[in-house]
């Protein structure tokens, strides 16, 4: 498989007065063609900032990509000018946001919002773009697309709006779709519809998806590979099957234990002690050490590196001694 | 060791089988829709439309449903934050659905407290932790100022808070900590029952587990009764003893959690369960997915007959004509569906 997107040691820091906040602190990530990769973590783990960095949508100042490369088809996105980046955004990489209620423009019709994208990126004529817009709406499952195209977003429900967002995002056949918590604001029955649609579209158009979520259920439903983030770093990376079979990092393990099950009963939920530390107070050594049930002296003093373990990798001293660092 | 405590717990519950702390009979809450210059009432939103269930002392009732199904309105109507349109709410043997505001405050409010969803919006940002927790006691004229101090220390201790935080403001706390404050506030008056409206939905999973564990511990310690409202089926399964599934203001199915989750009878419950994505291990059997077509109809204009028939995969012509009755098809397993 060939890599479509490769992040190498990406660091995005924010500046607040004199303190530097390392929101994303050395993230390595590979997304292959046609692959769905899930980026998992709790709030404050830096997953959204990672995705915004890829799109170069970090508000600057205060934010800045201070180090690292974002290789998309071999080109480093960090080095592109704003104009060049505009051509990639929407065309090659597009994005779906969490809030379907706020991410559409309320004063433009749905049609206008799709047509705008097509005319700008694909240089289509207005008529051709309108034609294509109707097609896209049908593709995402609207039966009366022709009537809907002149409606305003407020007439649609959350699930329908999210489908419109997907139609906009997919209209230029992007190679990579970044979906930031696309179903978090939706009900479960609607979430099932949207996940099915995303799976179907990615297969049909061979689109890679970077799915950002905190819901491990959604991950196992749709992803091929999972990257777990904690405090701005990748702590574990594995295929979906391997990760759910045997999570290596204590944090991943804790995350899985704290979800109540739908099929069985446990007497008491496992809970990870404490809370995610704020980025300006990341601990020295392993960032998970203060909350980790297995932490020993070395964890508190020395930061572990992300290590390769066969087809997966993990950042933890518990899995340190068997193989050499790559 | 664990096994015996569970057994003891369930034995205790069986003994209390007869005493219901709360009985709800055909509770309705309709909001008027007003239009025109004179603001005439032109229709109504049937947010809660005929709710009936009973809650035993010391148990947890879960109410699940998608957004717009009326579960939050139901919770608020139960404690008369909304005036019910019709129906009875019998709390400790007394109908509280139509008693006066003063009487309500004197005798009922103290015993039923509420925990809200959004821990960021439900605490007054200009009050310290101390005044947040003492306010309910002052309003209800409980305890002298010294006893109040002790009570606050005790509450903080119960929800696992450092007593040194007492003069801090809500913004200094994280979401999980604020939810603990919300719970402590609800406990300040020693209530019998707590209505928890999506108490963990705004929290991260690891924090969610902490709060759920805390709520379970407190229930055991203080013999509390919970009505737990949530959209998250797995959380409801974990915490509840019996569960009601709501759709468009009505309860579609009501059963013990074991019956409901292992053998859901109503097509809506079945669809809802199958739609939840579950983290599964390799080789685990893929479950049959039932994907519901379309969206929730508007509660201002609910479908004729069974409210679910527009999205139901098993709908027959009869479903669009007759409203199914809410009947007991197995012992303690109630379903509103023509299939049974």
The largest chain-to-chain contact, stated as pair and per-chain residue counts, equals: A-B, 46 and 42 residues
Q: In angstroms, what is the radius of gyration of chain B?
A: 21 Å
Strand order of the largest sheet of chain B: 6-7-8-3-9-10-12-11
Query: How large is the share of residues in beta strands of chain B?
Result: 15-25%
The figure for the number of domains of chain A is 2
Please report the total strand number of chain B as a whole number: 12
Shape descriptor of chain A reads globular
What is the CATH first-level class name of the largest domain in chain A?
A: Alpha Beta
Whole-number mean pLDDT of chain B: 86
Main sheet: strands, sense, barrel of chain A: 8 strands, mixed
Residue share in helix of chain A: 25-40%
Key attributes of the depicted protein:
heterodimer, A: 326 residues, alpha/beta, Rossmann fold, 2 domains, eight-stranded mixed sheet, four-stranded antiparallel sheet, 11 helices, 12 strands, 31% helix, 24% strand, globular, B: 340 residues, disordered N terminus, Oligopeptide/dipeptide ABC transporter ATP-binding protein (chain B)
Report on this structure.
- The complex is a heterodimer of chains A (326) and B (340).
- With 326 residues, chain A is of the alpha/beta class.
- Chain A has 2 domains: 3-92 and 174-319, 3-Layer(aba) Sandwich (Rossmann fold); 104-172, no CATH class.
- Chain A has 11 helices and 12 strands.
- Chain A has helices at 47-54, 82-88, 110-121, 126-139, 145-148, 158-170, 188-205, 216-222, 240-245, 250-257, 297-301; strands spanning 3-16, 19-32, 36-40, 63-72, 75-76, 93-96, 176-180, 208-213, 225-230, 233-239, 307-309, 312-314.
- Chain A has an 8-stranded mixed sheet, with helices on both faces. In chain A, strands 2-1-4-5 form a 4-stranded antiparallel sheet.
- In chain A, a hairpin with a 2-residue loop joins strand 11 (307-309) and strand 12.
- The two termini of chain A are 20 Å apart.
- In chain B, strands 6-7-8-3-9-10-12-11 form an 8-stranded mixed sheet, with helices on both faces. Chain B has a 4-stranded antiparallel sheet with strand order 2-1-4-5.
- By secondary structure, chain B is α/β, with parallel strands linked by helices.
- Chain B has a domain at 19-97 and 229-277 and 287-340: Rossmann fold.
- In chain B, helix 6 runs parallel beside helix 7 (205-222).
- Mean pLDDT of chain B is 86; it is low at 1-17.
